Amino acid sequence: MAPTITPPRVPAHLEALDLAALVFEDDMELDAVRLTGAAPDAAVLGLELAAAELRDVDLGGARLPRLALRNCLVAGGNLANVAVRGGSAERTVFDHVRLTGLTWHEGVLRDVVLRGCRVDLASFASTRLERVAFEDCVLTQADVQDARLAAVTFERCDLTGADLTGARFGAGCALRGCTLDGARGVEALRGVRMPYEDVLAAAVTFAGALGIQVLDDDRDDAG
């Protein structure tokens, strides 16, 4: 059974703000706003967005330690190479967002949905993920080293080359229709639920993690 994820509560009426016109300050709070526009490479020590919508924004390369998202919808746009440490996202949806190279370290994701996102080369190292759904996402070479996951699902995701080393998958975690070719640290998936056909498809990856040598046929190599 998929985890029950609490959706964001975003009001119908939002104040429209253009990122390009904003004067960023540390410890900045924005409530009930609709953000558009671009502010690449912005740097804000503490930015909190609540009951907000980010529509096709460009924050590529921004440095946003302690970023806090609560009841937010992020629709489209570019958050590639954004750097977050100790940040949090709660009751938030990322819908078809470019998150390539995102770093979200030592933070929290809770009641979050990522749908149709590019999350390749991203890192969630040492982050807690609780009730999170990745749906139709590209997670090639993503890094979840030492992350703690509970009730996290991956549906139809490409995890080719992902690094799961040291991650802890707890109750309610599942992978369905995912690609695991070349993934590292797959021993961390112990206890995760997967359909039978997916286990067979990932057999070579699992065999490599166990040190099993896969033969081309069932004949002995004797002689």
From TrEMBL:
Organism of this sequence: Paraconexibacter antarcticus
The cross-references to Pfam families, in alphabetical order and at most eight, read: Pentapeptide_4
What protein name does the entry list?
A: Pentapeptide repeat-containing protein
Classification lineage? Bacteria, Bacillati, Actinomycetota, Thermoleophilia, Solirubrobacterales
